[in-house]
Amino acid sequence: MKSNTYDLIVGGAGIVGLSHALAAVKKGLKVAVIERTPKPMGASVRNFGFYWLIGQQNGEHFDLALRSREVWLEMIQEAKIWARKRGALFLANSKTEADVLEEFHTLTQHEAYETTLLSREQMGKYIPSLSSSSIETGLLSTTEIQVSPFQAIFQLIEYLKFKGVDIFFSEPILHVTSGEVITSARTLTANKVLLSTGSDIYSLFPDEIKKQNTTLCSLQMMKLKVHDKSKLPKLPIATGTSLIHSPSFNICPSIDKLREQISVKSPLLNEWGINLMIGTTPSKDVILGDSHEYGAEKFKNNNEINELLLTEMKGIVELGEFKVHETWNGTYLKTEGKPYFHSEVEENVHLVNGLGGNGMTISFGLAEKHINEWMGVGELPKAEMI
What we know:
With 386 residues, this protein is α+β, with helices and mostly antiparallel strands. It contains 11 helices and 20 strands.
């Protein structure tokens, strides 16, 4: 019979919770993960599956992301997670977008970003068919990783089970106090409890979450079935809208000019918070997204956004004949002005949430930081680029 006593109990089986479980079990701790739904259903399985170092500003974001990259590479091998590890390609569809890419490349030469400017001819190695004749400049960033959002979380769960982590699904947590967690099915005790419940902001300690200056954000995405697989991009693609959505590009002198141009030329892109990105799955489908709507309590799929994403995509790459196979929404919690929030709501009961769209990029590093602190180990070891 299993003991109901653990070193760490994690509430939430998204990437944040699983990352903390992984960091803890690596230290030899006894860990349980409790998830209220029958399987992960939140933002961790409703995204591109991109690890996105290039979107992180220098500072804590960046340091956590660097360490997370090392852990992703470990997990890709050990948990046999499908991945593309060759980076991502930014496309410039205007002179100002090209200016931003060139400025970023120049300004970050002595930092851990790894970028190369590409001509249109050189981009042909990665994108079989560009639609726009005005795309003459690209930026290849080799630090990015893509996993399958529909597979990676489940593969990580199986790995954690193999390592001895107990994972309980379909068990809402009803009550948490220092040292005790009561679910719909059992009572567990733990030295520490970590709650990382994503967009579920009302079930546990809602008043504390409300105090943290957070907002809900809904994204809208779709999957495309492309008839001619030879037209598929060989790397994740980011566009001019990605430049104005990534804080790391704020160092570029031309970024404000780009924001103004997009606002004037394509106001709907701003209205719906479009960050046009394209990825491909292991089954050779295309993932297209995404929009960003902030603050609403309930979101629904908006066909106007779908049509806008498709129109913008067609202006960038030529995929030939395709059909929209699936559309969906995902919702995450974002902390204003900070990469995340961490609050100890009771003795040894911690909330970690509000990572915004950076869960796949910083969670592993953040988890190691917390576990090391709780065990008195100190700060993270300095990450090195692999």
